[in-house]
Design goal:
- The chain is an all-alpha fold and about 650 residues long.
- The protein has 18 helices and four strands.
- It has two domains: about 280 residues, Up-down Bundle (Rhopdopsin 7-helix transmembrane proteins); about 300 residues, Rhopdopsin 7-helix transmembrane proteins.
- It has a two-stranded antiparallel sheet with strand order 1-2. A two-stranded antiparallel sheet has the order 3-4.
- α1 packs across α18.
Length: about 650
Amino acid sequence: MPGPLSSIEIFNIFIYFVTFALGIVGNGLVIFVTGYKMKTTVNSIWFLNLAIADFIFILVIIFYIITGFNKMAWHFGDFMCKFVSFVAVLNMFASIFLLTAISLDRCMSTWVIVWAQNKRTLVKARIICALVWVLSILCSIPFVINRLVKHNRCVYNTLSIFKSLVIYRFMVGFLIPFLIIASSYIAIGVRAKRLKRGKKLKPFRVIIAVIMAFFICWFPFHVQQLCTVIAFKNNWSEFLNVIVDIGPFVNCLVHLNSCLNPILYVFMCEEFKKKLKQSLLLVLEMAFAEEHLPSRSSRASTCSGLSESQENATNVTTLPGPLSSIEIFNIFIYFVTFAVGIVGNGLVIFVTGYKMKTTVNSIWFLNLAIADFIFILVIIFYIITAFNRMVWHFGDFMCKFVSFVAVLNMFASIFLLTAISLDRCMSTWVIVWAQNKRTLVKARIICALVWVLSILCSIPFVIYRLVMDKKCIYNSSQVTFKSLVIYRFMVGFLIPFLIIASSYIAIGVRAKRLKRGKKLKPFRVIIAVIMAFFICWFPFHVQQLCTLFANDNNWSDFINVIGPFLNCLVHLNSCLNPILYVFMCEEFKKKLKQSLLLVLETAFAEEHLAFRSSRPSTCSGHSESQGLKANDTTISSANEDNKTSF
């Protein structure tokens, strides 16, 4: 049975989470824009395939995370051991070979300008990419053939094969491509100096950054792997222990390189950064603007939203082992919540807190996003606990603290939403008061009172939370649990929901009385927010209330089955907030689509190739990723764990 995770193991798993969150969003955006939205060019083909290579690895990183939580014990069988290894190594070779192809393409475009203008076609680029994928598959086959499950570990079958593959991987997957890449950009520099086009070398800041990132992320890993082979060959046990200790940190660099690609290849372009900053600030200011309040003389309605989290006392007694499909689905929802919530709520906090003009609306949205973001930060504990079948490894204090943060998020989000609803209602019924007395100071005071009230409402859940039999649960008193469930339903759902519903009914009555039907269009968003709040929370509270009577009516089996799905709804609501508050605004969607497409087209445009007679250079971006992402077991047991690395 897996024991408590060490600090190094937790750090390594955290890097997996960061890679997953940034990689899904960044590479997914690049794939969507280059594959479906922007005009197809040679550059867009390169970037599309590079993003696909990284995205493929991101999709299987869930297996690394689960294995990391289980102390490298492999629960997915021999086929999945080979398949995940294949995907990881395929990603490494495809990314590096594509980066090499891009480097040669850039070199040819500076030395053979006429050829590049006439013969550098989309068909040739697609053929090269296809050949790269075929070559990558062939290069990956030896790693798959010699991979198997042994003693509940996904490892290479013999030490001699492991040594051969390490050397082969270093030569084919790093040294040769790196020499070609370095030579290509040296040739580009020579050409630029010869033609005295120094001003066109500015984009090479990006190129140098890409090469340095490639070198920094991959070279330590390959050195560590080669040192491992040397240590085994010479029986240097102490040296081997040092190599094993640095293994997790080296592997983290390799993993991070996959999610760094969108940043290194795109976001370092000065023009991209400028346009992206302007466009995102513009569209968020439009979404949060005071003019969006309905039925006011000078304010139309914005996308009011609801935020929530949840705190549940599920007590599962099964020992850690292979996860069921329901458990895997539930953990997947945690990942989605984490990835979307970090990016979405983080963006809202950054813009409303630091970039846009402070308004009453921006204060509401800032606090709502903070409430969700707080919960997102502790979701890592839910994920780890879910992987361990609800076994709690973090002690009594963290049990209480995580429970406190979760319940605080629920109350703060719902109370803030209630305050927003009342504010909207007052702004439609008492227009003169809203124009003269609705100040920033009052909004900040209300938010402060909401947080104080939320903390006070959360205290009972913390007092009665403790670790018992390695589970973070409420104490054994059934009366206490029933009281908290009813209290949570009344204070955290029913009363706020009645106030919210009443507020928007009053707004509708006021709009109808004033015959301002045209200004009711924003209420599509408001209705969607209320429905999302109801859909995500009402089933959860009903299930919790049914739990109180399940034992007396033989409902417990059914309640336990539907519990994970209802909890997923509650979790998803936290990451849905940026969508419900902002992205449903038609003007926002239109401008965001235009702006993101514009900046990505700018970053990937053919004009970025330097030294063309008809194409000025802006941001000559390279792309590279990696796929080895070595399985973090490296070598802890001298005869087997040395063979677990990809």
